[in-house]
């Protein structure tokens, strides 16, 4: 069984209340979630809180995962990223509190970005690549990566207002 198929199976088991399946997902993803949170928050203790919150949300929302809409890794890292995305005071109220509506608005805002901007944000914030890693991956200077991500985030923020 492929890795993605195994993760889909694990998420289905979590939706049924299987703690062992959650533990298996935790072992696979906790380091990535922690790395993502630490890069954004720059605080190891807060990053640990994000890991805990992420897996609590996975436990409570696993039945919402739909493999037709995306990969398990993307879904998990999106859950991890949401509290980081709304760190700015009042941002959640601007976007709205309902998870489903949040996802729809963010998806629509992402569609308004260029394919390059969407890919950069996906790699940086949903797949957890650092700016330095992206520079190596894309063959761009570090400053170019940073400025393009900054512009894409500003554009995305404008679409979410």
UniProtKB/TrEMBL annotation:
Keywords: Sigma factor, Transcription, Transcription regulation. Gene3D superfamilies: 1.10.1740.10, Winged helix-like DNA-binding domain superfamily/Winged helix DNA-binding domain. It comes from the Bacteria. GO terms for molecular function: DNA binding; sigma factor activity. GO terms for biological process: DNA-templated transcription initiation. Residues 25-81 form the RNA polymerase sigma-70 region domain. The keyword Disulfide bond does not apply. Residues 105-156 form the RNA polymerase sigma factor 70 region 4 type domain. It holds the Pfam family Sigma70_r2. Transmembrane segments: none annotated. Belongs to the sigma-70 factor family. ECF subfamily. This is RNA polymerase subunit sigma-24.
